Amino acid sequence: MAFELPKLNYAYNALEPHIDARTMEIHHSKHHQAYVANLNNAVTGTDLEKLSLEQLMAGISKYPAAVRNNGGGHYNHSLFWEIMTPGADARPSGEVAAAIEKELGGFDKFKADFIQAGATRFGSGWAWLCVKADGTLSVCSTPNQDNPLMDISDCKGQPILGMDVWEHAYYLNYQNRRPDYMNAFFNVINWKKVNELYLKYKKQ
Ligand code: MN3
């Protein structure tokens, strides 16, 4: 079963003015599409084609770099599109909001720490909010297309929110101003979806 580019639940221009339509279109239809195509090329005809994306992530240290880079790229972007929405709430609600309050020092501290994780990731990578194995939340970042599901990651957990800090995610609209993009990202976070993912993975 070949991997496929997921459809977005909203139009390319739906996240404007925070994320512009051209960036969204290129990011989804070119960058993400390329990760999907390259992942399929890397696994087709090998034993790996029987594995799910999550299974690939869990054993990534054993697989070729093309699987790590493109499998990570496919996983990360699939989550990224889901945790953004037009008409986003400014702040989290529900149980994830309570957990952010209790475990991460409150929303303002979480936001500062999350943006700091993205700002201090040199070059390309991602900032994450994860549910760790013990069920508590953590904020961390990974380089390139790595993610917290990968066995090689020094930041491990189940990601429930991810922010792409590759230049391709913001350069057309924000040029080199990564902090402006990261602050704008907080205007499009689908907190209902993040809470849904929190409830799903906290139970495991
Ligand atoms: Mn990207």
Q: Key features?
A:
46% helix, 8 helices, mainly alpha, 204 residues, three-stranded antiparallel beta sheet, binds manganese (III) ion, globular
Provide a concise account of the structure shown:
This protein has 204 residues and is mainly α. The chain has helices at 21-43, 53-58, 65-82, 94-103, 107-119, 171-174, 178-185, 191-202; strands at residues 125-131, 137-143, 158-164.
Write a structural description.
- The protein is mainly alpha-helical.
- The protein contains eight helices and three strands.
- The chain has helices at 21-43, 53-58, 65-82, 94-103, 107-119, 171-174, 178-185, 191-202, and strands at 125-131, 137-143, 158-164.
- It has a three-stranded antiparallel sheet with strand order 2-1-3.
- Helix 1 (21-43) packs antiparallel against helix 3 (65-82) and helix 4 packs across helix 8.
- The longest helix has 23 residues, at 21-43.
- The radius of gyration is 16 Å and the shape is globular.
- The structure holds manganese (III) ion (MN3).
- Manganese (III) ion is lined by residues 27, 31, 77, 164, 166, 168-169.
